[in-house]
Amino acid sequence: MNFKKRLKKAPYLLLLFLVFYCSKPIEPKGEITTQKIDIQPFTHLKLKGKFRAFYKKSDKNFIDIETYPNIFDNLSIENKGDSLIISEKKPIKKVDFYNVDIYTNAEIHSIIMSDAVEMNTDNDLVSPKIHLNLKDHSKFIGGFDTQQIFINMSNLSLMNCKGKAKKAYIRLVDTANFLSPYFLVDNMTLKSKNQTYTEVNVKDTLRVDVQDTSKLLYYNQPVRDFKVGENTKVNHQKLN
């Protein structure tokens, strides 16, 4: 009788073991190495993981990955059609060297970032229209030269950018931070709520809908169209 009961429980025990094994964070092992992967040109970039990505303009398209061998093996790299997707197969523990350098001659149209990934750009991203979506502690530091930019940020994500744009449409929620006083925008539409913090530099027109306990600091002398909540703080300063 006991044997039959144990036999019935075996699949559940196996399932629990597999769940535990698959969810256990990977620890770095071995010596740090650099591995090169050739890729095709892409316009859509999706990054998900605990790594740091560096965008570098180049005549050729390839990726250099600097990290431990087992951390490299845990990366999933998909390069199909006009998309490049870099993500992690399993969760990992904190890694000291975990860099993904992306060299490309492609014109990027959209970037999606999540799961604490950080992206830096050596050069401005030049494109007539760019879409960015950041969430889950992800961070973007870089520059743009574009006619239109669409930015959606949430869940403690952070953006610090420079450059210029004719039009910018920005939506921030859930303690996202947009700190970009050296990103000069001609016309901006901004919506934010739930403890966000925003610094913007707008030349011509600034349309704002800022609610809850969010904060806004703006530079320059744009024509203003403001809708502001009772507990929202809005300040204006000159840029040093």
Quantity of strands, as a count: 17
User: How far is it from the N-terminal to the C-terminal residue, by CA?
Assistant: 81 Å
Radius of gyration: 22 Å
- Count structural domains: 2
Helix content, binned percent: 10-25%
Given the helix and strand composition, which structural class is it?
Answer: mainly beta
Order of helices and strands: HEEEEHEEEEEEEEEEEEE
Main sheet attributes: strand count, strand direction, barrel closure: 17 strands, mixed
Q: What is the name of the CATH architecture of the largest domain?
A: 3 Solenoid
Mean pLDDT: 93
Uncertain ranges: 17-21
| CATH topology-level name of the largest domain | Pectate Lyase C-like
Explain this structure to me?
With 240 residues, the chain is mainly beta. It folds into 2 domains: 31-118, Pectate Lyase C-like (3 Solenoid), CATH 2.160.20; 124-240, 3 Solenoid (Pectate Lyase C-like). Helix content is 11%, strand content 57%. It has a 17-stranded mixed beta sheet that branches.
Task: Give a short overview.
The chain is built from 2 helices and 17 strands. It has helices spanning 2-23, 69-73; strands spanning 33-38, 44-48, 52-57, 62-67, 75-80, 83-88, 99-104, 110-114, 118-121, 125-134, 139-153, 158-173, 177-193, 197-210, 215-219, 223-228, 233-237.
